[in-house]
Design goal:
mainly alpha
Length: 350
């Protein structure tokens, strides 16, 4: 029979065990609370208009620098303007390297190899299909069969389509008069900056020219919407890295099968290719993080700045100062006005 002392020992041991479990639970809960607070702070920081503006402009400046880099790259890799297959191979290698860089960066951040779950594979495929494969394959096909002016004008429709799609089709946001005004102003800026030579514009339409550019920009418009949706359950850095890896590989294969080839001498072309891969890696990863914490329209509207930066950076890097004209400055003002209208907050009603 158990004595009173034995009963007290059992109760004491049980109570101590209970206290130890409570301490462990408290530690776990404290870690979860700290993680939640840290995540909340990051979320609040990345939703601040000034931070969004700075990071979005950084992304568009990097993408804008790709315009003169691509021209330089074609010269260094001996790619003719009409050689679409080699242009696709050039783009594919660039995006494949970008995927490797993003995965390496993500692995360093989490101190282990950035891998994806089986459930994430379809999501990676969808983002890669729209962001990289469809957008760039049809872009280079369209570019080969239409004028540079039309290509530039069609380039601005991606932002317009993205805001319209997220509001009218996916119903993730409301289409307000302010957003519509911002889209019109931003697109007007792109139209104006493309209108350097009025005689270059014609109103013809062909499916392998203007039609291909239209498909390219629809794909470009859908990609941030899917990235925003999938980032709710998946790591946006992981999605960015593997979509580049898969998309770059697919485009490279298409380029090789179409007869494309790359030839170069010296180390300069290699350095340029690495820089262009870094442009894609950094810009798209930061863009994806911004989309994760902000409405699609408030981020994608900054995409109107791509071509504005492209013109200014081309003037600086390639010495194309004749491209900076009065309408270029006017286009910049229109694009900035469009960004303001999309991002401005409604005043509370009295």
């Amino acid at each position: 029979m158990k004595t009173g002392a034995d009963t007290i020992k059992v109760i004491s041991a049980g109570f101590l065990s209970f206290l130890e479990k409570c301490a462990i639970i408290r530690k776990i809960n404290q870690k979860e609370v700290n993680l939640m607070l840290h995540t909340k702070k990051i979320s609040q920081l990345l939703q601040r208009p000034v931070i969004v503006c700075f990071l979005a402009l950084l992304c568009t400046a990097l993408w804008g620098s790709a315009f003169p880099c691509i021209k330089t790259g074609y010269r260094l890799f001996h790619i003719a303007s009409e050689d679409t297959a080699s242009q696709l191979l050039f783009a594919g290698v660039r995006f494949f390297l970008a995927g490797i860089l993003v995965i390496l960066f993500g692995s360093l951040l989490q101190r282990k190899v950035l891998l994806f779950r089986k459930s994430a594979l379809p999501k990676i495929g969808i983002v890669s299909l729209f962001q990289t494969i469809l957008q760039y394959v049809f872009f280079y096909i369209g570019l080969a069969h239409t004028t540079a002016v039309k290509s530039s004008i069609f380039g601005g429709t991606g932002v317009l389509f993205s805001i319209l799609f997220v509001c009218l089709i996916f119903r993730q946001e409301k289409l307000t008069a302010s957003k519509l005004a911002g889209c019109i102003l931003g697109f007007s800026g792109i139209f104006l900056i493309s209108f350097q030579n009025l005689r270059s514009l014609d109103f013809g339409f062909s499916w392998n020219g203007e039609g291909a550019l239209l498909i390219s920009n629809i794909a470009n418009a859908l990609s941030p919407i899917f990235l925003k949706k999938f980032s709710k359950t998946e790591n946006s850095v992981m999605l960015s890295g593997y979509q580049f890896l898969f998309g770059g590989l697919c485009i490279s294969v298409i380029g090789v099968l179409a007869g494309g080839h790359l030839s170069f001498q010296g180390f300069s072309p290699v350095l340029l290719m690495i820089y262009m891969a870094m442009i894609s890696a950094v810009a798209y990863t930061v863009w994806g993080i911004l989309l994760q914490y902000n409405p699609v329209s408030k981020v994608t509207v900054y995409g109107f700045m791509n071509q504005v930066f492209g013109v200014f950076l081309s003037a600086i890097i390639l010495k194309e100062w004749d491209e900076i004209r009065l309408q270029t400055i006017a286009a910049l003002l229109l694009v900035c006005s469009g960004i303001y209208f999309v991002n401005r907050k409604k005043e509370a009603k009295a």
